[in-house]
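for the writeup, i need someone to sanity check this before i put it in the appendix. the sequnce is what the collaborator sent (i think, or maybe the updated version? ugh). structure was predicted straight from it, no edits. if anything looks off just tell me and ill rerun, i have time this weekend
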Amino acid sequence: MAINENAELEELIRNAGGGDTEAEGEEGSGLDIATLLLVARRSLIWIVLLIALGLTASWLFLRYTKPIYKSTSLLKIDEKTEAGALGLSGTMGKGIEERQSINKLSGEVELIKSNIIYRRLKDSLDLDVNYYVEGTVLENELYGTSPFEVEYRIKDASLYNTKFNLVFTGSQRIRLSYLYAGQERSGEYSLGQPIVLPGMELLFIGTSFLNAEALDKKYHFVINDEGTLNAYLSSNLSVDIINADANTIQIAFTDFNPAKAQDIVNKIDTVYLQEKLTQKQQATAQTLQFLEKTLSENRKQLQLAEENLQSFVRDNKTYDVKADVAAITEKLAAQAEEQQKLAEKARLLSNVARLVEQDRLIASDEATLEEGIPGIALLDDSPLTQQLSELNDLQRNLRRILRSYTPATEAVQQQQSTIAFLKGSIRRQLQQNRQLLQNQLGQMSQLQAQFNSELQALPQKETELARLKRPFELYEKTYLMLMDKIVEFNMAKAGTTADFQILSPASRPGAPISPVRVMVYAVGLAAGIILGLLLVAVRFFMHNTVTSVRELEQSTAASVLGVIPTYDKEKMSVSKLVVDKNPKSAISESIRSIRTNLDFISSSKKKRLISVTSTISGEGKTFVTVNLGGIIALSGQRVVILDLDMRKPKVNLAFGTENVKGVSTILIEKHTVLECLQHTSIPTLDFISAGPTPPNPSELILNPKFDEMLEELYQHYDVILIDTPPVGLVTDGILIMRKADIPLYIVRANYSKKTFLKNINKIMRANNFTRLCAILNDANASGVSGYGYGYGYGYGYGYGQGYYEETKPADGTFARLRKRFT
């Protein structure tokens, strides 16, 4: 019912005047800091709990997460670059050297991460079998500390990467269990006993760590295949270039076991050193093998040359004809050189003749004769050169003329005739020169033949001797050079060292790199704080009810007459008169303050009509009416309470009487006012119940009989208190408020919507209710701040909803904390 009423009210407010609503929305816009602080204070215990939850989650994460350790070493690669060896030291050489250095270091990184190093590493360390012991929370790897070792021979590859569980049943007895082919297999065996199982053979050997304490634990081991090991090494090994200028490389390995990480890094350094030495020795060995093979072949050739030379010296007597041979040889060389020049000149004449015939003497119009025919100066023929130059000019001129005239033009034909005549002259000149050159070449050939005959006439012994000495000297020189190289490489092989230094060897890591305890706790703390802030934000944005006097004052134009604190003295199913039972209680004092404020507002009038209304049911309208009437009556004034909420009468329930007759029967003239008056425990306080519910309450109120009833009551009472229907649901309350001297509007803390306050402003503007006053009901300590009421009293749900029960404040730390945070 309350939900439907709220929906109807919100719809009514939305359908109200658009301009007024927009103005009121603008007034309530902006961040409400006080409300935000109130929500934050009320959420403080939840924020603390969320932070504790975040820290607890961090602790659990650290508790159930295996720490990861990282061990590193730093290497310096001392490699000579090709640029340095070639002496390139300038800017270009520096760039080349840097690129070569980076390329070299990248190659070393790939070498360290290659299967070559992995293979050597697996041969050096026992990484093929992982041993584990079960802990209270996590399992721990027993690297180097296992109380047993296993030797295996796997026949079925499916047994690789299988978990084998092992427990000790005695000092030398074990029980082994594992899954094979989808079935669990188990058996009990002795240490040192060869075990033949389907698909494998095992042998368990005890170690020095096998003691009485180790016998009570549970173990398991895994036999890794090569692919698993390679994947394990690749995923945990990182090799990075730290400084390319300094040629430094960092090798790092991460693992759950710090000792294992350290051993692997140190072993990688060792096997890398061995691999580098092996590569250098292999290269040196290959070079020596090539040198020795070449030396053997050269030795055979040298021996053959020696034998030939010895045979020549032994069989022939030699004499010195070196001078004659040298002179004739020099002449032959000069003749050959001159013959070469003549042949070049003849070739040039042939090229010129071909170019003349093909009209391609010059390649372009701008080129000179020397540029078009390289070597023309070698002809040493001025008339021919002049004619060629003239032909070149004529051909160039003809091309220019052809750009402007057609071939049939007289000027073109005349130019062509001149060129043809000149070509004929050049042909004849070229023919003569070529004939002359042929004669000269013939003479040179005859002279060369003469020199050759003279040389042949000389004794052939020296020539043969020279011919035999040449291979001998060549083989001898090569033989000596190869011998020197073999000696050098043997010395290098004997002193081969690795081209790197270990600047920082791997050390055992003391603290894990992951998870970082401080970081995890910081994340948990931050998560708790963020969740707490989100909770505050959500509660703030969902906070749509009135909680304090300040909100009431800021959001409505009505004067705040007072505050009624929360009441929890007793459990009440309906509104009751409580001020007569505890006249000195906080709630009585707060209502007395409201009575005093009413006296200030209407001090000039002796007779007063006060209406009490609210937006919807449940805001405490009847409770305030009854107890306000009781307080006023206790001051000596005669008070009568009229229940005009004829649809849901409640005043009679507050005084514990029946609702047989009342206002409705008076207005239809069935009963008189005196007949309907009912007395209370306070002598000066009377009330008239609503009476039976009529079909037309609004029409009854508009009946002139209603004014007559009020006039009759004014004759006997000083104050008339009217409990009106909620104005957010029906219009009866508005009709009564127009007749009232002081209309009161009840707003319940933490119940009434903030949008209800806009309805108050609208009612005041629409009906000119200048004296309309608001009362904040059911306010806690924060709600009454500024009015002097910080007590924990008040009442429950109210109109049409019943009243809730508040337990008495309990003593103790928890109660104080609860009161503090709420």
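The chain has five domains: 39-68+520-544, 115-272, 273-319+466-499, 322-458, 549-821. The radius of gyration is 60 Å.
thx in advance!!
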